[in-house]
Write a structure and sequence with these properties.
- With about 325 residues, this protein is α/β, with parallel strands linked by helices.
- The protein has 10 helices and 13 strands.
- Helix 6 links the parallel strand 5 and strand 6.
- Helix 1 packs parallel to helix 2, helix 1 packs across helix 9 and helix 2 packs parallel to helix 3.
- The longest helix is centred in the N-terminal third of the chain and has 13 residues.
- It binds S-adenosylmethionine and iron/sulfur cluster (SF4).
- The site of S-adenosylmethionine has 19 residues, from strand 3, strand 5 and helix 10.
């Protein structure tokens, strides 16, 4: 098995983490992620099958990928997702399988996913007010999401990391209510605040992570917390009463120089950088009979071509290309 540094790029970054989008579709239409209508979805025939994803992940594992996260779109709209979790879990070298989900469909399948080997869960939740939640997601039911999370905790998947994208003038008023609600169970939840990244449509404005950090510091007291293992770029803190919080600040505190992640889109394109929608397809070669060695060579070459970083800024700069759900958030 290759060393973890097999996928090193021109800037010396070693890649050990792969995010796999299993579909570009979603049962929500979050206002900052998707338009209300008019999306040009991937053709179903173009989506990678579970067998194809498992084969590609095994090639990635041979090159040093150790952690995999399933995402989308909404991963739970793919049928029998536990089959994929089990397949990836059986690959030599992979020691962590996580998922990012909106949790709307989680209640009915949490125990099957846990049994199949899902180790960690991130849930996106941008408001604890049911009406605002329905508005932001364009139709989601908050109560179902909360029940889904409880089912996951009962199944032994926890603590859960919550992702809250804070949008200027939309859900800023929910920062404190979210802290109060989930802070009642500080062993069970970690609350992470994410700066909105402007894709080409530029629908919204971000709130700077530092502004949120100051707000929480004044109210509860806040200390940096290096004691718990964060998920990649999150800067971790602990509030005075114990709740762990994280800040993911892709714009105000760019973390491109330490990026260790790659993305596989649902139709088999390798996205070496979230800001780069233009790298070639791995699926095409695979479907044309490429061997594992051919695929490994193609992956190496694409990683060597990885961009140094994105150019988006809090108040301008270059927007991210494409649509988040197509690339895989
Ligand atoms: N549907 C799943 C979910 O919502 O958790 C997984 C896919 S979603 C694209 C992954 C994450 O990306 C979510 O936490 C979502 O809030 C975040 N996200 C989507 N669009 C974003 C944007 N423009 N800026 C920052 N985060 C974004
Ligand atoms: Fe769907 Fe997740 Fe995007 Fe919301 S953030 S529209 S749940 S993919």
């Amino acid at each position: 098995m290759s060393s973890p540094s097999a996928l090193r790029d021109r800037f010396g970054r070693a890649h050990t983490y792969l995010r796999v989008s299993v579909t570009d579709r979603c049962n929500f239409r979050c206002v900052y992620c998707l338009p209300a209508e008019g999306m040009d979805w991937m053709r179903r025939d173009d989506l990678l099958s579970y067998e194809e994803i498992t084969r590609l992940v095994s090639v990635f594992a041979s090159l040093g990928i150790r952690r995999v996260r399933l995402t989308g779109g909404e991963p739970l709209i793919r049928r029998d997702l536990e089959r994929l979790v089990e397949g990836i879990g059986g690959i030599e070298g992979i020691d962590d399988i996580a998922m990012t989900t909106n949790a709307h469909r989680l209640e009915g399948c949490a125990d099957r996913l846990a049994e199949a080997g899902l180790t960690r869960l991130n849930v996106s939740i941008d408001s604890i007010d049911p009406d605002q939640f329905a508005e932001i997601t364009r139709g989601g039911t908050l109560d179902r999401v909360l029940r889904g999370m409880d089912a996951a905790i009962d199944a032994g998947i926890g603590p859960i990391k919550l992702n809250m994208v804070v949008l200027k003038g939309v859900n800023e008023d929910q920062i404190i209510p979210m802290v109060e609600h989930f802070g009642a169970r500080p062993e069970t939840f970690v609350l992470r605040f994410i700066e909105y990244m402007p894709f080409e449509a530029r629908w919204h404005k971000s709130v700077k992570g530092e502004t949120i950090r100051d707000l929480l510091g004044e109210r509860y007291g806040i200390e940096p917390d290096g004691a718990w293992q964060g998920d990649g770029p999150a800067v971790n803190h602990r509030l005075g009463f114990g709740l762990r919080v994280g800040f993911i600040n892709p714009l105000s505190e760019r973390f491109c120089s330490t990026c260790n992640r790659l993305r596989l889109s649902a139709d088999g394109f390798l996205r070496t950088c979230l800001s780069d929608d233009g790298t070639p397809s791995l699926a095409e070669g695979m479907r044309d009979g490429a061997t594992d060695e051919d695929i490994a060579a193609a992956i190496r070459e694409m990683v060597l071509g990885k961009r140094e970083g994105h150019d988006a800024l809090l108040d301008g700069g270059k927007a991210f290309e494409g649509v988040m759900t197509r690339i895989g958030g």
